[in-house]
Specification:
The protein has 384 residues and is mainly beta. 11% of the residues lie in helices and 45% in strands. The chain is built from 6 helices and 25 strands.
Length: 384
Amino acid sequence: MAPHIPFEVITEILAKLPVKSLLKFRVVCKSWCSLISTSQFVKKHLSSNTSTPKKVIQLSRDVLTFYSLHDSKLVQETIEFRIEWHALSSFRIMGYCNGLVCIEACRENRIFLWNPSTRDSKILPCGVVDNSYFCWCGFGYDYNSDDYKVLTVDRLKKPIDNYQDSSRNSMMYTLRTNSWRRIQDFPLETSYMMVDSSAHAATHVNGALHWMARQGLNSWVIISLDLTTETYMEVPQPDFYGTPVEHIGIGESSTGCLCLNVHNGAGSQSYDFWVMKEYGVRESWTISLKIPFVVVGIYPKPVAWFSENGKILFNRDGKLATYNAKKNSVRYLHQTTYCHSCPHGDVYVESLVSPNAYSNREAKEISRLNNINVERTTRVVMSL
């Protein structure tokens, strides 16, 4: 195969191709198959591949749906998966990162990692986490240890009389060890509440998991868990110019920054989109965009924050729509299956990352979802 082309050049070319093509090219020759399977190439492809459009992800029962904007078309890809042990179970997304999706089968108290692009999967060990009690969760990548981690935070199992002495158990799963362990408890120094019960899944930014929570009646906090140190902290937030906040949402911008969607009370007529341009620095919070309240309606849920073409993609009552800041207009794209359990403010990117990358051969055979059946359909739902 073109022996005059240096192997390094071939590597650069392959690293820019979509996952679907690479899976086919593994059969071209042994050297290509070996290259595409290496962890070095998987990481290179993840960082350099820009040809595949980013996707919005939704999960309803056992149907995973992706929406992507490509060549002036809204493309819908549906993956229906059936698992023999999931007796009419409901599923929810706990998070997704680098092409892996972390999914909980609620009734079975089982969690599994799945790469829908490669169909590679892994069931997490059970018997440690009581999923019926945890209320906050997250999934992300620890850059320092090159490891993927899953977090669950238990609900309190008894009434609280004194919040100062209360805590919630935190359990951390690491892919490298394939095991759970208890980490620092989540402190309840005051009565934290989730802003939105659908936002139990964390936003993964800058190597940390983030949630938005209410502290008392009129105060808000950004709670984070550093995946390297595995410690909780509060992230500095804007002062919102001293005005009360009626609604707030958290997400990640297309540039990888932490951002907030804020609707102030006291007669505010817009949603303010704040971006933390330098992570951890309060003074770096700036308002990048204001969206008139009358244009987008009540509490839009952004799913792609500040896309490359200057538009924001959001979900309003199950309708996928874009807001054009230049024209101050909204265009509804498609009616989706509204799903409260999906993380908000994150976008899925395809990859070759395998949940079995750190497993030996015997462990792979035990942990895989060998009985998962997949049906995939792709169609164009709208020309833009």
